[in-house]
Amino acid sequence: MTRIEGRKADHINICLNERTEPGHSYWDDVKLVHEALPEVDWDSIDTSCTVLGKELSFPFMVTAITGGFEGAVRINSNLAEACADMGVGMGVGSERAGIEGVETESYRIIKDAGVPLVIGNVGAPQLVPQKGKRAYTAEDVAAAKDLVGADYVALHLNFLQEVVQPEGDTAAEGCYDAIRSISREVPVIVKETGAGISPGTIRRLEGIGIRGIDIAGMGGTSFSAVELYRARAADDAVRSRLGETFFDWGIPAPVSLSLADTDLPLIASGGIRTGLDVARSIALGASMAGAAAPLLEAAAESADAVRKVLTIIREELKAAMLLTGSPDISSLSKAGAVIIGETRQWIGGMKEWM
Predict the structure, then answer these.
(1) Which pLDDT tens digit goes with each residue over 111-137?
(2) Which of 41, 167, 286, 337 is most exposed, with minimal Cβ within 10 Å?
(3) Contacts 24+ apart (CB under 8 A), 233-241
(4) pLDDT band (50, 70, 90) for residue 101
C-alpha cells in the first residue's frame, strides 16, 4: 500500500472508530417556527429542487468521504448506487490518488452510476508547489472531473487538516490566484472541510468564476481530530499537540451560512445529521445541505443501508416542511428561524468583528 493509500485508509478507520467531532451541535441552536395550522397535505409536499443546474429529489448530497484505496471501492459503489436511486448528489473524496495514478477504481465506479449531481475533489493546497511537489494544473483538475464523470470539481480548502497532518502541505500563497485561473477552464465550486468560511472570504470568491460554495463549517467531523490520531500513531509530539489545540477550530456551519451574503449557491455541511438540520439550513439560505459522517457506517455495509439513512433524512425534512407550513422547498426557504445559544453568540461576535 502506498503512502497515499495508507493515509486514506487511516482516515476511514479513524472516522469509524474515534471521536472526531467537537461536541456541540450548532444546528440544534437553530429553531424553526412551528405552524400550528399548516394547511399543507403530507402527500402533496414537494421536496424536489434544482441545485447547480441539476434536478434532485430533495436538497441533499452525500459530501466527500473517500477514494484512492482498495477499501474505498465498496464504499463509493454503495454510495453511488443509493444516491442514484434516491435522486440526491454525491461528492467524492480527494482525487489526488487518481490524478497520480495510484488507485483509480474507487473513483471510476461512480462515473456510470447515474447520480444526478456528482462533485469531484481536488485540494487547493495542491494547486501551488509544495515542498518540491509540482502544482496541479487546470488539466489535472479536468482529469479529476473526467475520472468520476463529475459535473463540478470541489477545490477544497483543507489547510487546518494540512497543518496537523504529519506529511501536510502547508504552503498557501498563490492558492487564490490558482482557483481564479482554474475556474475559467473547469466548472468548480469551493469547499471548506470542516472549519467554515467567513463572509470576507466569500466576498473574495465572488466574481472569479466559481459556481458555488460548500461552507463545510465547524461542528461535524474535525480533520484536525482525524490527523491528531494519525500523529499520535506516528509518535509525532508536535503534530499531536497541534491536533489537540485546534480540535474545535473554525466557524460553526450555521454561523457561516447565516452571515453569507452572496448570490452563489451555498451548500451547507458541517454537523448536518438529520432531515431537520437540512430544513434548518434551507431556512437560513442554503441551496442544499450535505453530510458525510451519518452515511459512512452504512456505506461500509451496503447500498440498501445507505438508502435507509437517506430515506430517514428525506422523511425528517418532509416532517419539518409540514410543521412549518411549507409545501415546497421555495416556501421552506422563507420559513421562520430563531437562533439561540452559542450560535447566536457567535453571530453577534462576528457582526461586531465585521
Answers:
(1) 999 999 999 999 999 999 998 899 999
(2) 41
(3) 233/10, 234/166, 236/166, 239/164, 239/165, 239/166
(4) confident
